[in-house]
């Protein structure tokens, strides 16, 4: 599996002074109209790019976050969720094209975001507190379309990488190789409420100094660690597509200015572990090693993916931004879209949401999830074939005719057979894994990914059901217990 470029890029960044440590979210769970803070239990108004633990859902609490089985971010003690609005390009013909995040490729890898944990104690060098359980907050204002010079306004910025402009609060007015969307969160907490009606007023920016420094007011006396999000959008491919007199990018919330960029955070930390890291690190820059965090690998982060919650395309070429989000350029605030009919959530585990083919009846093989593979040491190595018109059916037929217990499709056109799957190659419970490549012979089917294999197992005895939990779309993945019982892995 090719490593995403995010790590290399982020590692070469000038880390802001007194950055205690960086949570590297190598990947994303998905891009989706979901926001458990602002729109619990329904489709949210616009599309977000969402990273963190796979306990993420349309509604969730701290315990759900802590119950995550995997995360797209690197520090193991952190199962928080981090999200912000997704960027699109408005083409001259009126279509909207999703803008890739650095690290996205067409083999199933998704790029992510970098979350800086900044130790900014202010002039009195306050001892910083970890986020408490159940804590959540948002920064930025989705409806804003004009520049302001208050701390909330200064906290949203855009860096044009490969251009020659300064950091701007608006989206850059010139073509850039990359646009780095950035937002700093408030760090002064009222010490009582873990959320508030507008998800903002329980926290404020410092009262003086700067938005990421300064003293906390007496109304919000508890000084928290400062969060700073960075998302790198790969805008190089759009450089020659500019037209007219406005910059052509737009955030998913219909924001053609950049002033309405916003971010959200749900705490999923092992709180004592975060507090210990803050205590050890203090203001020392770059103290990941002294904090002695255990890290997930990039490929573990890549394999952590959620199935879609809504049946609607959010990437590629779109006729409109998902939801009701007319593009506005200010300076007046955008109007809230209260009359837009929200689509139904699709929370069932189904072949469509989970990317598998039901061949239980036709071939007596059951889907058991998306496993890992390694080129030099195949997960299934007893027989193989490849084809420019591979399908799940063809691969299962190939392995079945040779009486193998497992068939696996990979990298769009490869098919492998074997009789067992090592436990370190087995699917992760609750994640759809990195199997996102369409089959070379049927674009409606999924045939694994790069280093990721869609696994089908021969049924034994009477029952033959796909190993996905029906009641939960997160399912998704696999019911490993059942898979193990059916054939020891
Ligand atoms: C509009 O233009 C974009 C960019 O060239 C292209 O990708 C897209 O397919 C076009 N949309 C339609 C509906 O033709
Ligand atoms: C996600 O939330 C929905 C709506 O509350 C719920 O029906 C579903 O069971 C949840 N999924 C998981 C895996 O908890």
TrEMBL record:
Domain WSC: 364-459
Species this chain originates from: Polyplosphaeria fusca
Protein's UniProt name: WSC-domain-containing protein
UniProt lineage: Eukaryota, Fungi, Dikarya, Ascomycota, Pezizomycotina
Keywords: Signal
Pfam families (UniProt xref): DUF1996, WSC
Signal sequence segment: 1-19
PROSITE patterns membership: WSC
